[in-house]
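Title: [Solved] Probable dual-specificity RNA methyltransferase RlmN 3D structure

Original question kept below for reference.
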Amino acid sequence: MPTKPGELTFAAPRAAKPPRHLADLSPDERRAAVAELGEKPFRAGQVARHYFTRLSSDPSEWTDIPAASRAGLAEKLLPELMSVVRNISCDDGATRKTLWRLFDGTLVESVLMRYPDRVTMCVSSQAGCGMNCPFCATGQAGLTRNLSAAEIVEQIVAGARDLRDGEVPGGPARLSNIVFMGMGEPLANYNRVMGAIRRLTDPAPDGLGLSQRGITVSTVGLVPAIHRLADEGMSLRLAVSLHAPDDELRDTLVPVNTRWKVAEVLDAAKRYAEVSGRRFSIEYALIRDINDQAWRADRLGRLLKNQRAHVNLIPLNPTPGSKWTASRPEDEREFVRRLEAHGVPVTVRDTRGQEIDGACGQLAAAER
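Solution (posted by the thread starter after getting help):
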């Protein structure tokens, strides 16, 4: 049973536990782990510097650590957690999707997207997803297990390393934004996701030193966990996958709505905005003849009018064999117009990655 609100009852099936990794541990825990190996505690900071700052997992490069100690430290603190099954690119290489095989054979995905002014990485927090949204490839696959904090961080460290080494067209670059919008419901894996975020935002050498403001956490609306996130005192961006402004339809599109209705979800998001000082985002996948009617745009506009909110409309990237498909261009334009008429800021998401099975879970499903 959960011990805190926000560590929810959407339990993952029992699975083999990933090996302990440096990125699972706080700085104090790392020092204790190093001491258990018979090494001086300050070695933990050296290993962390190599991993988080120099992006190196190769002990042969750790020249500031005695050669006799390197292999043991690497084995115990930096075990291999995942390997690349394949990389698929589009947009002249600016968008790259990676399919990972985890230590137990589980498959997850991440996507790196390079823009002229930023580099964004979309990462997975679970293998599969237990939210069962019918238009989502990951939801159709069901939940396999939660990812560890280190398995989440490793996706990002690998992306940062490839950017640094110029393996993404456009020359060396640094990650600027992380979005927890890959496979899984991040707030159903709350503790591990927050552990990963702390590793991402801890200053060097204890972490990657990324800005909290550059990290977005998405949720289908797990209300207790949204409140818990507000109480963390961080300046993350919250994104709520709403997809319908009315409970009748949302009960079908986002089944967790049968537990927490639209009004409860939006109240929690508004509180998060008040506490964090950040506006929240409403993610809304436009599905032809399902949720793209003008009256639903008006209803959403009335719900969000004068709120610290922004709507991100997503042209649906249909999954193979699905009855769901993207809205007509004219319906999309009218939806935007209606929201703007209510004074609600709205953008239409760039539809990158369609030719590489860009929607979460499509590549893993094809591999399986």
